[in-house]
Amino acid sequence: MSMMEELGKNAKQAAAVLSGLDTKTKNDCLQVMADKLRKHANRVLTANRQDLERAAENGTREVMLDRLRLTHARIEDMAKGIEAVIDLPDPIGEVSKMWRNEAGLLIGQQRVPLGVIGIIFESRPNVTTDAASLCFKTGNAVILRGGKDAFQSNEVLVTILQGALAACDLPRNCIQFVNDTSYDVANQMMTANQYLDVLIPRGGASLIKRITENATVPVIETGTGNNHVYVDQAAQLDMAADIILNAKVQRPSVCNSIETILVHEAVAEEFLPQIEQVMLANQVELRGCPKSLNYLQTAHPAQEEDWETEYLDLTLAVKVVASVDEAIQHINKYNSGHSEAIVTDSYTAGQRFLKEVDAAAVYINASTRFTDGFMYGFGAEIGISTQKLHARGPMGLPELTSTKYIIYGDGQIRE
Question: 20 to 30 Å CA-CA from 206: which of 171, 269, 375, 404?
């Protein structure tokens, strides 16, 4: 029996138990998970230091090390994320609507678990607790396959979560960890249709591309964030500078950071030198279009690939546009469907941007860094879906459910 077959069979059995749990039982166990995570924080940090040391030896960039790094504060945030899930309404069993048809049947639509969820992710160990808590609350068994960079951290985290399950007399296999980071096992997950009901990739463009092109299991595509801020001619320029600074610099290695700014030509002469100074003070390299280079002193000429690239680093592409139309056209050509923002005091421009930009999250006068399940009030998140079927945007509890029809009759037969 292959590893994936064993994990899959275990998950199926666990999912059958999970689907019958009431909300109180699930919430009580989630609290035990949060408590044990706090109790064993030093154990997690020891494993994380091993991951960080190995990643540094392999030449991993500092911004990517930040994705991997755990601290006491970040572990506390992970525990609070689990507790936030406890406070959220349990969608399982919810009947969204009910009606009676001509035959007198009472028909309802009810939320149910998806079943078994596979998640393949890279670098960020907080995904382990986020995914596990959301899947558990929605009655789904989960099989987690993290990247080799965070292997030690993920293994310890899953062990702690499984300890909480055991303490609650629930199957440890509700949450399972793939302790093999080889492509072979990842490929097995992609084709494990008899065990997995859905596969969710979280990581860089190459990982997501490989999974979407090769998986036979249904996939919910999450991830890459080639995001933009458009500074309109009616923008408050100080506000625009603050938003761009936050969206680019606060955590450049995450998918809701920005990679390109578009600046209306009417404000380019005033705004571009201003934003250049802000970016230089934060070690951000600029790559500009020919028009922008007229106002930027330190920028390198942008190439076509710069408009397409998710840098996940302190690099920012800059383009001057003639109108909101040109900004929208550029965004819809190059963006990844994640998060887009306009800075403007014009109601008309803002509403056009909201209506015409094709992305999961579209902002007026706010940073794209808010595209996050926790920020939206979903507790933790399973990822940011950039596709349009089943789920789009930050995925919380409802997005990890399906529906079934429940029908009440009193002897009806179809003529």
Answer: 375
